[in-house]
Structures are given as structure tokens and as C-alpha cells.
Specification:
By secondary structure, this protein is an alpha+beta fold. 19% of the residues lie in helices and 25% in strands. It contains seven helices and 22 strands. A seven-stranded mixed β-sheet has the order 1-7-6-8-10-9-2, with helices on both faces. Strands 19-18-21-22 form a four-stranded antiparallel β-sheet, with no helix packed on it.
């Protein structure tokens, strides 16, 4: 967890990379520019509104609900921030003898993960439809979130499938996108965490999101010029939970921060939106209530699945992958995500040897200095891979068996371990089964 108050101000960012046109829906931009050329602001607004309707944007006004929620909004919810480019932090040796941040595994905190993520895009501000540039950005965001989860194209989201809780793991069989809403009230300039929490609270009832819905993600995207407190200098985005215990993301208007928050980081002016939006989306899946899910407490950069690979590792002199990812709705600039199974940052679940068929019924029975793991047979599996780690992330042993049980011998007494099992052959999108136990 990184405090905004200790962040080093960004230095001058590297030179931008060449742009490349994204294959995204741009009906809103085309229609709006056509009316601008023919003359008339009123016609532009009407055109943008028509474009919004054609892309199924639900237009609402949450002003009164927001004001009511603001009066009771809490400021104590933990948030995990995504530092801007240039906030350099030197790598260091982690507790498990690995190199922080991008070669040290995350550990499980005992809380939930999102099994079936649903993303609700909330565009806060009237300018999302009245300004042609912002309407084009909204179209980009809809295309981006609409492609996440769609199989077989999206092998990026499925990296998260290896991170389970006590009842299951993230899985993806279709788009995670639940829809777009535009709140036409104007957000306060310099919006605080309380403001954003209240806006997310006010939205929950409108979208029909029940209190405590773990699988929901509300993305509060504020219009250009809002510049939420600390944006661009202390962070590029963050995720937290609102007073209704619904996970939400603060997604500012990335173009306002320029290169500090990803503009042209890979190939497009919109890269910051997909990099930061994707970063927070993945972290909300694996740690929806920070820090009760999967994270690395020894990682001073933030410790979550996206933090470890942020900006290609350039903030600590690393070389983690990033690049364009092709989804069913277009091609988007993305960062890599950390894989415990691979022990590094990866761009695809197929890049890790442990992203395979899931097993069910995994049990780990401890007896003094040994653990017996048993699991159900998995359809079409010819063998099973096992891995044993300490809860601090140190690898103890790994291997392959053809049966559905394995005994780990000669372990430390009174020590806590995590057992992982998966089936062969590989099946993209499925997750590794894990269970934590303690020797007697």
C-alpha cells in the first residue's frame, strides 16, 4: 500500500511512442464532428445525444442522491493507488528472498475475490455527451470494457483466474460489461475520495446494485477538467469500496494528465484509459476490498496484481511486458499482470504454465510435518501439476502426478502453506485451485 503523501513527484516522462489508430467504435466522434463542420453547437449536442442513445447510454441525474450520500460518506475506506510514471522506486529484496516488486508473489488475505465480475461504467458530467472529444473517449471506454471477458479473445483477464478464495475463482465466459450510465450533474472540481464515494453510493440504487455485491465494479469516470484531488501528480487512478460495500474505481480523465498517466504510452492517445482502467479492473477482481484479497504486503509500490507490473516496470528499472491487446471489440494498449504461477508479469494466461483446467474438491489434510492433498478428477486431464508455497510466497516444491492425491513430506512443523493443484492439458480461461493449511 503506497501513501499518496510519500509519492515522489513525477520527473519528465520519456518521449511518447508513435500513435496507431485503434479499431474502436467512433460513431459518436464522426457524428459530432460532422455537425461541427456544418455549424451549430446545438446541432452538436443533439448529435452527441443521438450517438449516446445508439450505444445504449442510460442518462440520469444523481445530483440530489449524491448530495444526500455526501452527507454520510465515510473517508476511512482503504484505497490502493496507481502511481504515475516517473514515481521511481528502487527494487529491493522481499521477505521471501525474491526481488520486489515484479518477482515476489502475492499472498491471500482470506477475503473474497470476484468470481463473475460485472463492470458498470458511470460517466460523471454533462460534457461526456456535449463535447465531441469526450464523446469519442466514452465510446472508447465502452468498447474496451465491452471486450473484457469475451472468450477466446480475452486471455488477459483470465490471468486473474489463478487467484481463488474459499469458494471459487474468477471465471470468464462472456463480456463483463453491465452497461453505461451518464450522470449529467457536474462533478466538483478537485473531487475528493468522499465525493467519489458518495457518487458511487448514489449510483448503486439507480443501477440496482445491492449492498455488498462483491462481483460488481462501478467505474466512476469523471469528465475532463474535474482533476480529482492528487490526480496526475500522486496517482493516475485507484480502487476502493463505497459505503454500500460495493467496489468502485476512480477513473479520472487521463488526457488531462498527459504522458504522466499513459497518453501515447504504447500507440494511442487513449492508452492511459485502457492501461489504468484495466489495471484497476484486474485489481478489483483479485482484491475487491483492499487489502483482504491477494496482495504483497512487502511491496512498497502497492502490492496488487497490477501494481507489480505498472508502466512496464520502468518505475523501478524493470522490463515487464506491455503492448496492444486484441479483444473482440478492438485493440487496446494494456499493461501486464502479475502471475504467481509464472512468478513474473505476463500479458496472457497462456503465458503461464499453470493456467489450465481447474480441479474441484481440493483438500489439504495436515499431519505433523506432512500434508496430504486430494482432489476430484478433472475431465480430459491426463495428469495434474502440484505446487507448494509458504504463505510468504516461497516455493517449497512442485511436480506432476497422474493420480488425484499427493503427500508433501518433511515440512516445517507449525508452519502455514498454500497448496496449488491444476489439471493437464491446458484450457485457456480456467484457474488453478488453491487451499491454505497449517502443519500440526
Amino acid at each position: 500500500m503506497t501513501s499518496p503523501n510519500t509519492t515522489t513527484p513525477p520527473t519528465t516522462p520519456p518521449a511518447s511512442k508513435p500513435r496507431r489508430k485503434h479499431r474502436v467504435r467512433i460513431a459518436a466522434l464522426i457524428a459530432s464532428l460532422a455537425t461541427v463542420l456544418s455549424g451549430g453547437l446545438a446541432a452538436t449536442v443533439a448529435s452527441a445525444s443521438a450517438a449516446s442513445a445508439s450505444t445504449n447510454v442510460h442518462v440520469i441525474n444523481l445530483h440530489d442522491a449524491y448530495r444526500a450520500a455526501l452527507a454520510r460518506a465515510a473517508t476511512s475506506h482503504k484505497k490502493v493507488i496507481f502511481l504515475p510514471r516517473g514515481a521511481h522506486m528502487p527494487p529491493r529484496t522481499g521477505a521471501a528472498g525474491c526481488t520486489e516488486p515484479d518477482h515476489c508473489n502475492m499472498t491471500y488475505g482470506g477475503g473474497p475475490v470476484q468470481h463473475s465480475p460485472k463492470v458498470y461504467l458511470l460517466l460523471w458530467g454533462p460534457n461526456w455527451s456535449s463535447d465531441s472529444s469526450q464523446a469519442a473517449t466514452a465510446s472508447f471506454l465502452q468498447s474496451f470494457y465491452g471486450g473484457l471477458g469475451v472468450q477466446p479473445q480475452d486471455s488477459w483477464s483470465t490471468i486473474t483466474s489463478q487467484y481463488s478464495d474459499t469458494t471459487g475463482h474468477p471465471s470468464f465466459s462472456g463480456s463483463v460489461f453491465a452497461g453505461t450510465w451518464q450522470d449529467t450533474s457536474t462533478p466538483p472540481t478537485g473531487a475528493t475520495q468522499s465525493d467519489l464515494t458518495a457518487e458511487s453510493d448514489a449510483f448503486d440504487a439507480t443501477a440496482g446494485i445491492p449492498s455488498g455485491m462483491t462481483d460488481a465494479q462501478v467505474v466512476v469516470a469523471t469528465q475532463s477538467g474535474t482533476s480529482p484531488s492528487g490526480f496526475g501528480s500522486q496517482y493516475c487512478g485507484w480502487h476502493s469500496t463505497d459505503d454500500n460495500s460495493v467496489p468502485f474505481t476512480n477513473l479520472p480523465y487521463m488526457l488531462d494528465a498527459g504522458a504522466n498517466c499513459g497518453t501515447n504510452f504504447i500507440s494511442s492517445q487513449y492508452d492511459g484509459f485502457s492501461i489504468v482502467g484495466g489495471h484497476e479492473y484486474a485489481e478489483t477482481i483479485t482484491d475487491p476490498y483492499p487489502n483482504s484479497g491477494w496482495w504483497d504486503a512487502a511491496d512498497s509500490y502497492g502490492g496488487e496484481i497490477g501494481d507489480k507490473c505498472a508502466w512496464g516496470g520502468s518505475n523501478w528499472g524493470g522490463n515487464d511486458p506491455s503492448g496492444d491487446v486484441s479483444l473482440s471489440t478492438g485493440t487496446f494498449g494494456m499493461q501486464s499482470l502479475y502471475s504467481n504461477a509464472a512468478g513474473q508479469c505476463v500479458m496472457s494466461s497462456t503465458a503461464t504454465q499453470y493456467a489450465t483446467n481447474p480441479v474441484s474438491g481440493l483438500k489439504a489434510s495436515p499431519r505433523y510435518t506432512q500434508i496430504t492433498a486430494t482432489w476430484n478428477a478433472s475431465k480430459n486431464a491426463t495428469s495434474y501439476r502440484y505446487r507448494l508455497r509458504t504463505t510468504s510466497g516461497t516455493l517449497v516444491t512442485q511436480g506432476t502426478v497422474t493420480g488425484t492425491s499427493y503427500i508433501f513430506h518433511n515440512l516445517q512443523a507449525l508452519h502455514t502453506y498454500v497448496v496449488y493443484v491444476l489439471a493437464n492439458p491446458a484450457a485457456p480461461g480456467a484457474g488453478i485451485a488453491g487451499v491454505t493449511t497449517k502443519t500440526k
